[in-house]
Each structure stands twice: as structure tokens, then as C-alpha cells.
């Protein structure tokens, strides 16, 4: 009798322990029962009492990151390794469809193959130099668009695909880095040349202004010199002992001035 009670007690403990489940924070769950199959309504966070024969499939509804190294070929056939990160999460309202169509291992079955396929398709349009230096963000956007296009109606949301690093054969990477350094030096030299050219143009304009100013001043000085010469000549004529008549230009708009002189004898 005691053995029967012990067995019954153990059975009650086992049944009660399998008749409840806890869904953690940020999680969602789908229940399967032998009688009804997969239930459409997802189970939210917290403690839940379920059938002791139910199976519970939990999904992380939070943003998840999966890192993957992808072997791809550039447009010239060179092998490149991309270190990527994909940020994703299941669509909470579509957990039932995700469970029945794909299942909890949806990254391995769905996302991983789509990421690798999209990366190979996009990278094949670019050169190693573009992927390594100038077009990395563009490649990211195109891979993201390619993956999302194929993910329509697949009950998973991809928020970003990032290229963390690009690995090239050492000799190719060294050649690209040398070329980039030369381009930077060329840009720096071009900047210096442009600066000097602008400075030369500024000095040319400044010199032209100075020349015009000097020409204007020089013209004024020449007229003043002629006037001074004229005054000096008149003064010498006036002081001359010979009788004479001197006609002076009184300036524009005025009548000429006439001076009469006569010879005087010294005493």
C-alpha cells in the first residue's frame, strides 16, 4: 500500500511539473498538443498551465545578431572573405506560421543561406578595391535589399546587414593600400597647387591695381612737372634785360595774361 502511494505521489509530481511552463522575458512561445496540433495563438511571457502532453516551442523575440564569415568572389574572380553581422528577429504576430512552415531553427534553414546567396550575387558586381575601400557601404545596402526581397512572407524581420571587415590576399591588400596612399598624396598635392594658383591670381589682381594706381599718380606728377617748368621759364624771361611781351595761359576758361617788360639800365 505504501509503495502504491509513493508511486502515485511521484506520478502527481511528474504530471504537475509537465503541466506548466514559463516563458521568459522577451520570449514568445507556440504550443503543440496531440489532440489539436499547433495552436495559433502564441503564448506570452510568464507562467502558464498547459496540457501535460503539450510541447512548447520558444522563440526569442528580441533583436539578435549572428556573425558569419562569407567566402565570395569579386568581379575579377578573386576570392574575398567578408566578416558580416546580420541583425534579425521573428515577427511576433506570425510565430504560428514561422513554426509550421520553418521551425525554431530558422536561421540555419532560411536566413543563413539567403545571406550567403545575396552576398555572392552582390559582391560579384564589384572589384576587390571597391569592396575594400570605396564601395563597402553600397555593398552592404545591396546585400540587405537582396536578402529582404527574398524574405517577403517568411515571417522574419532583418534590420541590418553589416560588413565588419574585408579580408583579401596579402599581396592584393598591400597593393590597394599603396594605391590609396598615393591617391591621398596626389589629393594633398592638388590642394597645394590649387592654393598656390589662387594666391598667384590674387597677387596678379593686386599688382594690376597697383599698376593702375601708379599710372594715375604718374600722370598727375607729369602735369605738375610741366607747370613747374613753365613757371620757371616765365620767371627767367621776366628777369631777362631785353624788352618783351609775355602772354601767359591763365587756365581753362580764363583770359590770357599779358606782361610788358622794358629794358632798364643799370646805374
UniProtKB/TrEMBL annotation:
Membrane topology: Single-pass membrane protein
Cell location: Membrane
Any Pfam family hit: Band_7
SUPFAM superfamilies (UniProt xref): Band 7/SPFH domain (SSF117892)
Segment forming the signal sequence: 1-19
Coiled coil: none
Name of the protein in question: SPFH/band 7 domain protein
Superkingdom in the source lineage: Bacteria
Major localization listed first in the record, in broad terms: membrane
